[in-house]
C-alpha cells in the first residue's frame, strides 16, 4: 500500500469506525507492553530514592554554601 491509499482509506471511514480503529490499535499496543517484575520494580524504586537523596544533599549543600557567602558579603549575623 502506498501512503496515498492509506490516507484515502482513513478519509472514507466514518467517525465511529475511526474511533473503533483507534481503540483496537490502543489495545494492540497495550498487549505489547512488558511490565516490570516485583524485583525489578523494587530495584528501580530504590535507585530513584537514592538518586533523589543525593540530589537533595547536593542542593542543600549549595544552599548552605550560598547562604554563608551572602552572609559574609553583606555582614549579616
Could you explain the architecture of this structure?
There is one protein chain. With 77 residues, this protein is mainly α. The chain folds into two domains: 33 residues; 42 residues. Helices cover 83% and strands 0% of the residues. It has three helices and no strands. The longest helix is centred in the C-terminal third of the chain and has 37 residues. The chain is elongated. The mean pLDDT is 88.
Ordered list of secondary-structure elements with their pairings:
Layout: H1 3-12, H2 15-31, H3 38-74
What proportion of the residues form beta strands (DSSP E)? under 5%
* Count of the domains: 2
User: What integer value in Å does the Rg equal?
Assistant: 28 Å
Tell me the overall shape.
elongated
Largest sheet: none
Question: What's the mean pLDDT score?
Answer: 88
- Low-confidence runs: none
Tally of contiguous helical segments: 3
Helix-and-strand structural type: mainly alpha
For the record, give the distance between the C-alpha atoms at the N and C termini, rounded to a whole number. 77 Å
Number of strands: 0
**What's the multimeric state?**
single chain
Question: What portion of residues is helical?
Answer: over 70%
Order of helices and strands: HHH
